[in-house]
Amino acid sequence: MTVTAAKEIVQTFEKVFEPIDRERLHALSEKGRADPSVVKTVRARTVAEGRRFRHLNYIRNLDAHIVDEPPALLGDDTAPNPTEALLAALGTCVAVGLQANAIACGWTVKGIEVESEGDINITSVWGTGDLSEKPVGLTTVRLKVHLDIEGASPAELDELVAHAGQWSPVLNTVKNPVSVTLARA
């Protein structure tokens, strides 16, 4: 993609940024306050496509979300790898929280961007490589938020970022221990 094409996409995005509806957000918030004990089970089904490490992930009734590996990790490079997909989910969850809370404050959201990066030692190669003692998985994640929000002071934007981080389900799942079971069906 050329720089000109990329700039055109950004300009188009800036013109059509459509924030969520504040009244519908308020109604959803009130529903949560009315019964704070509600727990929803979310599901995904992952199916190995049979093309190296390419996998199809099915969520609700949506088209398959593809996850693959890059060539250096023996994949076909057709989609993000699992760690990149996790970073994308993390950035998206934080961005959703930023937008919801900015709208709740009555601010005008013109743009939100979350840069996500993380460090991972891949030498164990899924348990087939170097199995010496080391952390498995991401050891450090860095998020950088770019906000184009009118009506908020820099201090309010800093508070917004901290608040969104405090209440982001994906960020807190990554940050805090969570019970996970893995068993053969």
Could you describe the 3D structure shown?
- The chain is built from five helices and five strands, in the order H-H-E-E-E-H-E-E-H-H.
- By secondary structure, the chain is α+β, with helices and mostly antiparallel strands.
- The protein is globular.
Q: Mind telling me the CATH class of the largest domain? A: Alpha Beta
Level of helix content?
Answer: 25-40%
Tally of extended strands? 5
Separation of the first and last Cα atoms: 44 Å
Map the helices and strands:
Elements: H1 3-16, H2 22-34, E1 45-48, E2 55-58, E3 65-67, H3 82-104, E4 108-120, E5 138-150, H4 154-167, H5 169-175
Antiparallel strand pairs: 1-2, 2-3, 4-5
Pfam families: OsmC (PF02566)
Protein name: OsmC family protein
Organism: Methylorubrum populi (strain ATCC BAA-705 / NCIMB 13946 / BJ001)
Describe this protein with a few key phrases.
185 residues, alpha+beta, GMP Synthetase, Chain A, domain 3, 2 domains, two-stranded antiparallel ribbon, globular, OsmC family protein, KH_dom-like_a/b
Give a concise summary:
The protein is of the alpha+beta class and 185 residues long. Helices cover 38% and strands 20% of the residues.
